[in-house]
Design brief:
The chain is an alpha/beta fold. Strand 5, helix 3 and strand 6 form a beta-alpha-beta unit.
């Protein structure tokens, strides 16, 4: 273990693997409460941030909680002790506990929660259900011969591929083609090194699949009876009770899943040829529609599909800092 790290260093490790730009527009992943300059002694990983979770972090001497579900989702106008959220924020701040959340960016990442769950459930040939696609863009820098080497050095140092072309005896064009967001990162790096530089940005027709996005669809090694696969899922995820919409009696070969609350994806899963769709928080009318369409749905519960997210984060940080795992119990009791 490398010892004490600054919060900024931990955030950098997390965001390299689970970029914030992958989060959904409505989400609030990232640093929720904290100071990036704080030195982190011990990290607690928790699915949700409840008062019991905070109290455990205090008792164990943790000054960072990494959660899956963000403490703050919408805008808040007041922070005081008159409501549950205000009390929790005050307690976190009084005890100097930072909070960082990885939510839908963790779900969508290449090596994120959806892929982890698909592998856990025996998936092969795993593909993204709702894949992120982004335009490629081109930037042309026009630069003098005196600054050509400096610009090339900056680009090479930051691993950007480029093509250098002569314009005339005194000027050069340096061309870079990247995804839009990477291109703007490149531009910011260049501007920090060379204050005055001419450039033009063009959007290209080419699009690139990113291998990221919500949900995964996969094949099983062999066809299995529906009940047999449901039992397998329960065993692998350590679940005692599930809700099954049994819409047909066909064997299961292709499975789609979205961790958390992903019931709105069932129709896309059906169009992609899935024999079974796995998610949580399925409402009655969604279940009824899928039943009539002939689509099997397995509702494994929201908590049950996500509580082991700590296994992914622990793997990324285990050699960097001291980690403990503490989850609130599932608020739903099966009787």
């Amino acid at each position: 273990m490398d010892g004490i790290l600054k919060l900024a260093e931990i955030i950098n490790i997390l965001e390299i693997n689970f970029p914030l730009e992958l989060q959904e527009k409505w989400d609030n992943s990232g640093l929720i409460i904290g100071d990036k300059n704080d030195e982190i002694n011990k990290v607690q990983i928790s699915l949700d941030i409840t008062e019991r979770v905070i109290n455990n972090a205090i008792s164990k001497g943790c000054n960072l909680i990494i959660s899956h579900h963000p403490t703050i989702f919408g805008g808040i106008k007041k922070i005081n002790d008159s409501d549950v959220l205000g009390k929790k924020i005050l307690k976190l701040m009084r005890n100097k506990i930072n909070v960082y959340s990885l939510h839908t960016n963790l779900d969508s990442a290449k090596d994120g929660l959806n892929l982890y769950l698909a592998k856990k459930l025996g998936g092969e040939n795993i593909k993204v259900i709702s894949e992120n696609i982004e335009n490629l863009c081109k930037i042309d820098f026009t630069i003098s011969i005196d600054e050509k080497e400096k610009l090339e050095e900056v680009l090479f140092k930051n691993s950007f591929n480029f093509i250098t072309k002569n314009i005339d005896e005194k000027k050069f064009s340096i061309e870079i083609i990247e995804l839009k967001r990477d291109l703007y990162k490149c531009l910011n790096i260049v501007k920090n090194s060379i204050k005055e530089i001419e450039y033009s940005i063009y959007s290209l027709e080419n699009k690139e699949k990113l291998g990221t996005g919500l949900g995964r669809i996969y094949n099983l090694p062999k066809e299995v009876v529906l009940d047999e696969y449901v039992d397998f899922v329960k065993e692998k995820l350590d679940i005692n009770h599930v809700k099954l919409v049994r819409a047909n009696e066909k064997n299961i070969k292709k499975v789609a899943l979205v961790n958390g609350s992903g019931a709105e994806f069932w129709e896309k899963a059906e169009r992609l040829g899935a024999d079974l769709f796995i998610t949580g928080d399925v409402k009655y009318h969604t279940a009824l529609d899928s039943f009539e369409k002939g689509m099997n749905i397995l509702d494994i519960g929201h908590y049950e599909a996500e509580h082991f997210f700590n296994e992914i984060i622990s793997e990324k940080l285990k050699t960097k800092c001291e980690i403990i795992v503490f989850n609130e119990k599932n608020v739903f009791e099966m009787r």
